[in-house]
Specification:
Elements: H1 8-58, H2 89-97, E1 113-115, H3 116-122, E2 136-139, H4 140-143, E3 161-165, E4 168-171, E5 186-187, E6 198-199, E7 207-212, E8 217-223
Parallel strand pairs: 1-4, 2-4
Antiparallel strand pairs: 2-3, 3-7, 5-6, 5-8, 7-8
Helix pairs in contact: 1-2
Length: 251
C-alpha cells in the first residue's frame, strides 16, 4: 500500500536538517554582506583620499585647515554653506568628488556628531548639533590647524591616518567613541608596533578603513593593547591625555 505523505518523524528530521543548514549558512551570509560593506566603505575612503590629495596639490602641498571651533558661539563653524568662511571639511573637498554618498559608510546606521570636545565645552550632553551626511572623522592633529599643515611637515605620510570611520566629525584621541562593549580598541600602523593612532569601535570585521596623509586608503585591524611606546608621538589624536580624570563619557 502506497503512502500519501511523510510521517511525523520524517518531517521532524527534514525540519532539523533545515535548521542546522540555516545555522551554518546565516553567519556566512552575514559575513559576506559585511565584506561587501567593508569593500564599499574602502572604495569611499579611496575616493576621499584622492580628493584630499587633489586639494593638497591645488593648494601648494598644504592640507585644508579645520581648526577646533572653540564652543557654542562658533557652532556655525560646521556649516555646509560654501560661502561661509569656516566650512566643514567635507565641503572643502566636495568639489573634487561631487558625490555626497561617498561620506556615507554602509556599515554605520547611527548618528554623526559634530565634535566631542566642542560639545563638552558647549554643555550639550544630548549632542543635538549633528551632521547627518558625514560618517567619517578627521585627525585633529594634522587637519586641525588654523592655517593648514604642509605635506612636507609630515615625516611619514604613508603611516599617518588623517580620516577614518568615526561618528565624531572632529576627532581627538581620548574621547572619540564610546566602545560598544566597554572595551576600547586601538589601531597601530603595520611594522611600527607601539605607535597608536586611533581609538574607536571596529566597524568592519575587527578593523576600520583609514585615509592616510599620502592619499592612499586601507583597512587597519584593531587591538586591545592600549599601551603605546612612551618615546613615540600619537599619530591619531591631540594629546595623550586631555581630561584631568582621563575619563570619557560616550554619547
Amino acid at each position: 500500500m502506497r503512502r500519501n505523505g511523510f510521517t511525523l518523524i520524517e518531517l521532524l528530521v527534514v525540519i532539523a536538517i533545515i535548521a542546522i543548514l540555516a545555522a551554518i549558512l546565516f553567519p556566512v551570509f552575514s559575513q559576506a554582506r559585511e565584506s561587501a560593506r567593508k569593500t564599499a566603505c574602502l572604495s569611499n575612503t579611496k575616493q576621499i583620499g584622492l580628493a584630499v590629495n587633489m586639494y593638497v596639490q591645488d593648494y601648494d602641498e598644504t592640507f585644508f585647515p579645520q581648526p577646533w571651533p572653540g564652543g557654542c558661539p562658533d557652532v556655525g563653524y560646521f556649516t555646509t554653506n560654501p560661502a561661509h568662511p569656516k566650512q566643514h571639511w567635507a565641503t572643502m573637498i566636495y568639489p573634487y568628488v561631487k558625490n555626497g554618498g561617498l561620506f556615507d559608510c554602509p556599515s554605520y546606521a547611527g548618528t554623526t556628531y559634530v565634535a566631542s570636545y566642542a560639545l563638552w565645552v558647549c554643555g550639550d550632553p544630548d549632542r543635538k548639533r549633528i551632521v547627518p551626511f558625514v560618517e567619517y572623522g578627521i585627525n585633529e592633529l594634522i587637519l586641525g590647524s588654523s592655517t593648514g599643515v604642509s605635506l612636507a611637515a609630515i615625516q611619514s605620510p604613508a603611516n599617518i591616518g588623517i580620516i577614518a570611520d568615526n561618528n565624531y566629525i572632529f576627532s581627538w584621541r581620548n574621547c572619540l567613541l564610546g566602545p560598544l562593549d566597554s572595551q576600547p580598541r586601538f589601531y597601530w600602523p603595520e611594522g611600527r608596533g607601539g605607535w597608536e593612532f586611533y581609538q574607536g569601535n571596529p566597524r568592519h570585521q575587527g578593523g576600520m578603513n583609514f585615509v592616510y596623509a599620502d592619499g592612499h586608503s586601507k583597512w587597519a585591524r584593531s587591538t586591545n593593547n592600549p599601551n603605546p611606546k612612551p618615546d613615540r608621538p600619537y599619530e591619531w589624536g591631540y594629546y595623550p591625555v586631555l581630561m584631568s580624570d582621563d575619563v570619557c563619557t560616550p554619547p
